[in-house]
């Protein structure tokens, strides 16, 4: 684990500790301001980290030329459009798949060497553990994203899993501490925030202080500053395009309640970008896999 990733992990743990202390002191944000702050943070930090997919495609898949980039872009946008279409026609299937794929994707955050059961617990923590102490609020938020019926379908499973998930996570922290105290502390911080904090706040802290910066640190070239600047310049255009699309969606949904609009734009947008993002990472993983002996 590089120095940058270790530092980022410690910052996440420190931010989590500050939040937990604030909650113990009785701090509670006004709901409207909390929603605006969370939406802005996720949009500002979430979109750029996804935009680095163009860097991954160029550097690891060797995409060059207009034709290759056109095919890549059409496939990427097409997968995103399929997710939005699924949300529109089958919201319960969308919500179930989104939560499952998100847990799988988040499980890639821990450092190399972390066992797969611990990764599974880590990936699902911010999704499952809020149901333990904030079940009603979590169901309300999921209902705003995908409809009350869809939220009512998934919540019994989340409530059933929450307590065993927390117990298994505590055990995983104790076992992981023997190998990597930092990895164990990161998992403990995530579990504590996901259990104690309101669901939106817990997600924002995790996504903005852990998932997004960790992906950026792993993606940006580390050899030369010039390489990093070129990578950031490449990621600028997808970021601008997504912001323009967000503004357009906002104008089309101007009569929708603010909370519903922000949640749907944020989480349906994240879901739409998560599928092609995961597909790209899987393609890169297969491309970088060593060929079998004799080939």
Task: Describe what is shown at a glance.
The chain is 83% helix and 0% strand. It has 13 helices and no strands.
First and last CA, distance: 32 Å
User: What Rg do the Cα atoms give?
Assistant: 19 Å
The number of distinct structural domains comes to: 1
| Mean pLDDT across all amino acids | 82
Order of helices and strands: HHHHHHHHHHHHH
What is the percentage of strand-forming residues? Answer: under 5%
Oligomer: single chain
> Which regions have little confidence, pLDDT < 50, spanning 5+ residues?
291-295
Total strand segments: 0
Largest sheet: none
Helicity, in percent? Answer: over 70%
Structure classification: mainly alpha
State the shape. Answer: globular
Output the number of helix runs: 13
Describe what this molecule looks like in 3D:
With 295 residues, this protein is mainly alpha-helical. The chain has one domain. Helix content is 83%, strand content 0%. It contains 13 helices and no strands. Helix 5 (91-106) crosses helix 13 (258-287). The model is unreliable at 291-295 (pLDDT under 50).
Characteristics of this structure?
mainly alpha, globular, disordered C terminus, 295 residues, 13 helices
């Amino acid at each position: 684990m590089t120095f940058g990733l270790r530092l980022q992990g410690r910052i996440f743990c420190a931010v989590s500790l500050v939040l937990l202390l604030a909650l113990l002191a009785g701090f509670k944000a006004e709901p409207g301001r909390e929603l605006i702050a969370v939406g802005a943070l996720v949009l500002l930090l979430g979109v750029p980290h996804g935009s680095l997919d163009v860097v991954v495609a160029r550097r690891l898949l060797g995409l060059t030329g207009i034709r290759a980039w056109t095919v890549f872009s059409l496939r990427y946008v097409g997968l995103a459009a399929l997710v939005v279409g699924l949300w529109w026609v089958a919201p319960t299937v969308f919500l179930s798949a989104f939560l499952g794929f998100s847990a799988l994707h988040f499980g890639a955050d821990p450092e190399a060497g972390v066992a797969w059961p611990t990764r599974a617990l880590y990936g699902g923590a911010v999704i499952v553990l809020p149901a333990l102490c904030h079940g009603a609020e979590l169901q309300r938020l999921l209902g705003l994203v995908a409809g009350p019926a869809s939220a009512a379908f998934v919540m019994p499973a989340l409530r059933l899993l929450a307590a065993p998930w927390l117990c298994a996570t505590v055990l995983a922290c104790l076992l992981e501490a023997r190998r990597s105290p930092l990895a164990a502390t990161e998992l403990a911080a995530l579990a504590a925030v996901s259990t104690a904090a309101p669901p939106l706040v817990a997600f924002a802290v995790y996504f903005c202080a852990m998932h997004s910066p960790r992906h950026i640190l792993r993606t940006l070239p580390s050899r030369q500053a010039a390489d990093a600047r070129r990578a950031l310049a490449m990621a600028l255009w997808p970021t601008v395009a997504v912001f323009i699309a967000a503004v357009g969606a906002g104008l089309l949904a101007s009569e929708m309640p603010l909370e519903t609009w922000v949640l749907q734009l944020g989480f349906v947008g994240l879901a739409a970008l998560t599928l092609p993002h995961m597909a790209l990472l899987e393609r890169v993983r297969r491309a970088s896999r060593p060929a079998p002996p004799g080939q």
